């Protein structure tokens, strides 16, 4: 048994990547592992040096000028996720090729936290930033579900969408995603809960429903568009990085090789 | 002018640059990172046939610019929107003197807009007055993510920015083009937030605020403020090239913009030399909303004519040949400009 136990506890690259699946790009509402942001994983299990087990990962982003607050969040969340892994003694997270790489990497190495890393540029914490994008992610998920319902059931009227409850939504990835976002905001997920609500769970008056849906649609388009643009920029910046990206169905285009999408256009009007 | 299928389009490219990012002008690693970021935008969204070599891209000069825009590119008039970036480039990124001289030599084709940084305080205000005296510009391009000493960004609502906007009103600099980059301070909040534009648009009713790249990556926030303010416009720089690789996304951007902002407040821009105008104009004239997007009405030829040039020509008082003009539409000053845009007749969103 003594010889087997360390083998079982040995951390693998799969363990590391699975642990990183919980780290989201808050802006794009997707795991960094799906986006191809994890550049490398190295594990030193200490067998040679008889030292501690050290996991070192490198992260990469689509541009040098991606917002440093999001960059920092993803790095810090990665360090937390890996530090919680059984059998890992030490974690090194390094952000490559960013305008704030030196600053962020030094802060991570020293466990300086957000305030300690950014000094006077930081005020208190990044909770509000996270919350802003949790709300946007919920808004987009809500719009996807309701628009899918409108398209699938011609008897549903747009004005009546305010009355639609969760039990009316078909089982599937849109509904799963919506329930996940609702939990993240602390909104009810009971079958009779209304779908179209604001971030505090308040429903809309019938007259406000079309505008609420329109605003939600703009949010969804924005997130999907950014997610695909960021993916594309990463592929342009780092040759071969596309192999590390999972396809994103929301906002997919014919150029992404999704053959089911129509490309016929409307009659030209003058 | 561009002609297609018997229709003539007067073209104004409302956002162009003459930059120098050659090695000799790069001050530090960030100057290199900045032009590399631009080059990745260029490579990622351009058709393969329109991709430049890196060396061409770092500096192309006035002669190449004139050829790409006016000889090959169908453009009738273009507007310089310079970014200074003095912390990244020894002689700045946008080449003020070269661009101004070029505009002087071709006043019928080029308009020179200037830039300022409110963190330059009183000295900067004096410079603005002096530069305006010399160059007589009616517009400025402001980049809120510019670095400046210890500061890595500013807001339009900063007290000094308000003083500069007051000076713009006094001098008759009425067209304020805003490029929202990631404004770093404070890091606690969303760096691309456009809320400050909402404030100054309300406080400075005599100024036009043109939000470049229509607020991307915060299209939704931009649409929401633009719909509430009569003096907020949208520049289509960066949005345009999605027409090639991501036409469905582009259709949605246009559908949202026409609904919220309306056909009279949107300006075509190539963002030259990030992209070249020729293919963008040709693709836009041919463009239509995909048939299955029943939530949007088709884009009309009239709307395309306004966006491609007539809107910017009006704001900048450019002389448009009589036969190319169009009457302005009777859209409301605020609120969704085209509430009827949804193609309800054959839409699953229909209420009947």
Automatic annotation (TrEMBL), chain A:
Pfam families: FeS_assembly_P. Residues 244-270 are annotated as: Disordered. Gene3D superfamilies: Fe-S cluster assembly (FSCA). Residues 13-91 form the MIP18 family-like domain. Residues 250-270 have a biased composition (Basic and acidic residues). It comes from the Bacteria. This is Iron-sulfur cluster assembly protein. It comes from Intrasporangium calvum.
Automatic annotation (TrEMBL), chain B:
It comes from the Bacteria. Residues 325-352 are annotated as: Disordered. Pfam families: Amidohydro_2. Residues 12-318 form the Amidohydrolase-related domain. InterPro entries: Amidohydro-rel (IPR006680), Metal_Hydrolase (IPR032466). This is Amidohydrolase.
């Amino acid at each position: 048994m003594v010889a087997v136990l360390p083998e079982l506890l040995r951390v693998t690259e799969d363990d590391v990547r699975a642990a990183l699946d919980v780290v989201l790009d808050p802006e794009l509402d997707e795991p960094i592992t799906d986006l191809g942001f994890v550049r490398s994983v190295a594990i030193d299990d200490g067998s040679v040096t008889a030292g501690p087990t050290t996991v070192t990962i490198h992260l990469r982003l689509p541009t040098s000028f991606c917002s440093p607050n999001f960059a920092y969040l993803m790095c810090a969340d990665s360090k937390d996720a890996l530090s919680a892994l059984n059998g890992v003694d030490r974690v090194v997270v390094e952000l490559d090729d960013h305008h704030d790489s030196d600053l962020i990497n030094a802060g991570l190495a020293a466990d300086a936290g957000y305030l300690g890393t950014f000094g006077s540029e930081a005020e208190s914490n990044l909770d509000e930033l996270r919350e802003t994008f949790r709300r946007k992610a919920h808004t987009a998920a809500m719009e996807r579900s309701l628009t899918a319902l409108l398209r699938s059931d011609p008897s549903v009227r747009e004005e009546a969408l305010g009355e639609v409850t969760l039990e009316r939504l078909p089982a599937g990835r849109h509904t799963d995603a919506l329930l996940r976002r609702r939990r993240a905001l602390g909104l009810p997920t009971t079958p009779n809960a209304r779908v179209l609500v604001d971030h505090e769970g308040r429903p809309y008056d019938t007259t406000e429903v079309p505008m609420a849906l329109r605003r939600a649609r703009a949010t969804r388009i924005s997130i999907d568009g950014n997610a695909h643009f960021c993916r594309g920029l990463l592929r342009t910046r780092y040759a071969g990085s596309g192999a590390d990206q999972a396809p994103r169905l929301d906002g997919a285009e014919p150029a992404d090789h999704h053959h089911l999408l129509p490309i016929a256009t409307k009659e030209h009007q003058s | 002018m561009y002609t297609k299928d018997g229709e003539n389009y007067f073209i104004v490219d409302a956002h162009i640059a003459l930059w120098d990012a050659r090695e000799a002008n790069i001050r530090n690693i960030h100057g290199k990172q900045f032009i590399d970021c631009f080059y990745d935008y260029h490579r990622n969204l351009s058709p393969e046939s329109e991709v430049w070599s890196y060396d061409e891209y770092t500096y192309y000069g006035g002669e190449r610019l004139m050829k790409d825009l006016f000889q090959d590119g169908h453009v009738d008039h273009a507007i310089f929107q310079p970014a200074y970036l003095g912390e990244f480039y020894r002689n700045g990124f946008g080449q003020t003197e070269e661009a101004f001289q070029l505009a002087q030599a071709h006043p019928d084709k080029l308009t020179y807009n200037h830039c300022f940084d409110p963190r330059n305080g009183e000295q900067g205000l004096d410079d603005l007055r002096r530069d305006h005296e010399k160059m007589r510009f009616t517009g400025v391009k402001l980049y809120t993510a510019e670095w400046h000493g210890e500061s890595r960004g500013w807001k339009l609502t900063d007290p000094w920015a308000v003083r500069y906007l007051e000076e713009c009103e006094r001098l008759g600099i009425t067209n304020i083009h805003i490029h929202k980059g990631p404004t770093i301070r404070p890091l606690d909040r969303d760096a691309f937030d456009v809320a400050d534009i909402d404030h100054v648009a309300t406080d400075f009713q005599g100024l036009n605020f043109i939000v470049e790249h229509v607020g991307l990556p915060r299209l939704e926030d931009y649409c929401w403020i633009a719909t509430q303010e009569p003096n907020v416009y949208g520049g289509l720089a960066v949005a345009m090239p999605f027409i090639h690789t991501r036409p469905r996304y582009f259709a949605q951007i246009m559908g949202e913009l026409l609904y919220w902002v309306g056909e009279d407040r949107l300006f075509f821009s190539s963002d030259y030399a990030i992209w070249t105008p020729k293919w963008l104009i040709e693709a836009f004239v041919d463009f239509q909303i995909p048939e299955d997007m029943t939530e949007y009405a088709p884009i009309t030829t009239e709307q395309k004519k306004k966006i491609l040039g007539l809107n910017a020509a009006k704001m900048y008082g450019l002389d448009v040949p009589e036969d190319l003009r169009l009457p302005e539409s009777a859209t409301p000053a605020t609120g969704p400009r085209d509430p009827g845009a949804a193609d309800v007749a054959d839409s699953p969103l229909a209420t009947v």
